[in-house]
Amino acid sequence: MAVRHHLIRTSPQSVWTVLEDGTRYAEWVVGTSSSKPVHGHWPQLGSAIGFEVRLGPLSLTNETVVRRCVPGEALELEAKAGPLGTARIAIELRPWGDHCLVIVDEHPLKGAGGTVHNAAVEALIQIRHRAMLARLAKICEADAAEAERHRPLGQVVSPAPDEGGARG
Hints:
There is one protein chain. By secondary structure, this protein is an alpha+beta fold. 28% of the residues lie in helices and 39% in strands. The protein has a seven-stranded antiparallel beta sheet with strand order 1-7-6-5-4-3-2. Strand 5 and strand 6 form a beta hairpin.
C-alpha cells in the first residue's frame, strides 16, 4: 500500500473545503487535466466526478466515486481507470496544532493495476502522492492566505473546538 502524509499549514476545515469541491479535483490530482461532477452531490456517498487524463494526443475519461465520507475528516474514493482497473484512495485529515496532517493511502482494487502491483509501481505512486500533496498544500495555504487578507482588521479568529488548535 502506498501511504504518504503531508503537513498542510492551515486548518483541517480549509483543506476539507478544497476536497469537497469536485470542480477543483484536477487542480491537485496529478495527471488529471479536468474534472466535473457527473452525478450526486460531491462528496456525498455514491456521488461521482468525471475526470480526464491526457497523454500527448491521447485522452482517457473516467470517474471517481465516493465510497466513504466523514465531512471534515475522511474521504475514501474509488478511482476508475478503464482497462487498468480501479484503485481505493483514502484521504484522512487530522488536526495537528493549528495545521492539518493529511494522510493518503492508495492501493489497487480490481483489474490490471492489481495484477501488476509491485514495488516499482508502489514507488511511482509514492512520487505521484508527493507531488499531489504538495499541490494540495499550495492550494489550501493560498486559499487560507486569501481569506486572511479579506478578514476585517481587528477581527480575532480562534479555531472552533472541532477545527484543531490547542486543546485544553
